[in-house]
């Protein structure tokens, strides 16, 4: 996760547009490059069955799903299309699909939510995705509103932009004039489409947007972009050292200080002045089973 990937020689085509012409041909490309979510798993020639195709279709309609949802979706697809088929491990199942998707320059990528580190999977373009290509169903002024929100989020200390600050920029949008009321609805559309997350009237990037646009954001805002001192991935929300200024993702903070009796900055060794956040723990999750589906993870904001 977060490993730099080679720039694609082809321009982005949009995942939907690339997929729609029909089910991808079966058979993997020789010399397939493992996607960033593999952990040294065996590379195998991908054969797409109806189970894989249905899974891909459903994942596409969601855009992004938490791992729990992905596992449910996989089970569902086997139930519908492959009652007698041997069930592949999730990692193999995804690698299999990715080996076929590779020729379309799209990939199912694994990431994690920035606030609590829940694993998520999204279908993303391998080529750099600029705002103008991220979704075909938005008008020019709507995409420009997203760009404005993105800039405010990237420039902020906290990784959040208030709706007031975003709406104050509607007069500067390219394309058709937009009223503030409309702009509010457009922001909600970005939330529904999982490009933005809203918390208490403030907006930040959804992990789908981070997975899809990391490369674009790094290239477009090289001076404003923040990275995590631990995983070196793009950082939108996180904690920072008050002495030397380095930043860490909340899940990276939790992991890094897990067994430290006294948390100290990994860069300057000064005392780490923030509360160590509670984040997603797969072992705890397994113990608790599915019974606590309603439990809300900790949503405290820190920076
Ligand atoms: Zn990190
Ligand atoms: Zn420091």
From TrEMBL:
Q: What is its main location?
A: nucleus
Query: What's its top-level EC category?
Result: transferase
Please give the biological process terms from Gene Ontology that the record holds: double-strand break repair via homologous recombination
So which domain of life are we looking at? Eukaryota
Q: Which GO terms describe its cellular component?
A: chromosome, telomeric region; nucleus; Smc5-Smc6 complex
Q: What is its EC number?
A: 2.3.2.27
Compositionally biased residues, Basic residues: 293-303
Q: Which residues form the Phorbol-ester/DAG-type domain?
A: 213-265
| Positions with biased composition (Basic and acidic residues) | 280-289
For this protein, the record's Gene3D superfamilies field holds: 3.90.1150.220, Winged helix-like DNA-binding domain superfamily/Winged helix DNA-binding domain, Zinc/RING finger domain, C3HC4 (zinc finger)
Q: What GO annotations for molecular function exist for this entry?
A: ubiquitin protein ligase activity; zinc ion binding
Key words of the record: Chromosome, DNA damage, DNA recombination, DNA repair, Metal-binding, Nucleus, Telomere, Transferase, Ubl conjugation, Ubl conjugation pathway, Zinc, Zinc-finger
Task: Give me the segments passing through the membrane.
Answer: none
**Region labeled Disordered — which residues?**
1-37, 280-303
**For bias kind Low complexity, which ranges apply?**
1-18
- Name all RING-type domain ranges: 228-269
Its UniProt entry gives the catalysed reaction(s) as: S-ubiquitinyl-[E2 ubiquitin-conjugating enzyme]-L-cysteine + [acceptor protein]-L-lysine = [E2 ubiquitin-conjugating enzyme]-L-cysteine + N(6)-ubiquitinyl-[acceptor protein]-L-lysine
Record's subcellular location: Chromosome, Telomere; Nucleus
InterPro entries in the record: C1-like_sf (IPR046349), Nse1 (IPR011513), Nse1_RING_C4HC3-type (IPR014857), PKC_DAG/PE (IPR002219), WH-like_DNA-bd_sf (IPR036388), Znf_RING (IPR001841), Znf_RING/FYVE/PHD (IPR013083)
According to its UniProt entry, what is the function of this protein?
RING-type zinc finger-containing E3 ubiquitin ligase that assembles with melanoma antigen protein (MAGE) to catalyze the direct transfer of ubiquitin from E2 ubiquitin-conjugating enzyme to a specific substrate. Involved in maintenance of genome integrity, DNA damage response and DNA repair.
Indicate the family of this protein: Belongs to the NSE1 family.
Q: How does it assemble?
A: Component of the Smc5-Smc6 complex.
Which PANTHER family did the record assign? NON-SMC ELEMENT 1-RELATED, NON-STRUCTURAL MAINTENANCE OF CHROMOSOMES ELEMENT 1 HOMOLOG
Q: What is this protein called?
A: Non-structural maintenance of chromosomes element 1 homolog
The organism named in the record is: Panthera pardus
For this protein's source organism, the top of the classification is: Eukaryota, Metazoa, Chordata, Craniata, Vertebrata
Task: Tell me the gene name.
Answer: NSMCE1
